[in-house]
């Protein structure tokens, strides 16, 4: 069920639920978050079953249970489908059909559209497929309100535009893995230099999107600090990747996973990207969860 990936999914979903302008019953809220976690795990199980062949080739994924043969792919498929249906049905019963529909769509999008179609067919796989990982805060918002508002869409957009620089930073220093598995990640299909340029472009788009909640008033002073200060560091790390030689190691170095200056830049951006997204949603969670939300407009900011 990929629990490490699920952690960020659950956290952003919780932030979306708490930031919504509706007080939700604690039990219903807990069930909603559980459903999102189970749904994400179900999609992960389906992904793991389908990708067992390439997971077995890549060092980063070769210890996954289906790739190791510990769990048969047929059982992983069954597990994923059963929990996908259970999580969607429980979400519908505990909250509303809008949240349940979004949860079902995100599971299908990740389990089928991304895993089966996009991942092995196009270097844009992570751009389009990133939508699946951007749904959790929108689902959390919908669970609380029964609607999809502009603020929910902005939270979706933040994660959607965060995904390419995050994932391509990883792909730069793991390009040998993807090449061996035949996965057309951007560094493999278009080269390291093109990938570094696109990381910079998407970084600018991502940072612009993070300002959206400030304009609508969803984000307060704490969120603004995370956007400005944390975003500045994100930009500098992305610029460092752009100016580096990340992903351009020779084949022998790729096989040995040599840590060079360029690849270290990509590693640093990958690690910090997780921290920055967490910081943004933590700010929203604290502001709305504790009643400390102070709009910039009240300070004359907008």
TrEMBL record:
It catalyses: heme b + (2E,6E)-farnesyl diphosphate + H2O = Fe(II)-heme o + diphosphate. Pathway: Porphyrin-containing compound metabolism; heme O biosynthesis; heme O from protoheme: step 1/1. Its EC number is 2.5.1.141. One of its GO terms (molecular function) is protoheme IX farnesyltransferase activity. Keywords: Cell membrane, Heme biosynthesis, Membrane, Transferase, Transmembrane, Transmembrane helix. It is found in: Cell membrane. The keyword Transcription regulation does not apply. Its main location: membrane. One of its GO terms (biological process) is heme O biosynthetic process. Pfam families: UbiA. It is an enzyme of class 2 (transferase). It comes from the Bacteria. It is a multi-pass membrane protein. Gene3D superfamilies: UbiA prenyltransferase (1.10.357.140). The chain crosses the membrane at residues 29-50, 70-91, 97-118, 125-146, 152-173, 194-215, 221-239, 269-286. GO terms for cellular component: plasma membrane. Converts heme B (protoheme IX) to heme O by substitution of the vinyl group on carbon 2 of heme B porphyrin ring with a hydroxyethyl farnesyl side group. Carbon 2 of the heme B porphyrin ring is defined according to the Fischer nomenclature. Belongs to the UbiA prenyltransferase family. Protoheme IX farnesyltransferase subfamily. This is Protoheme IX farnesyltransferase. It comes from Marinicauda algicola.
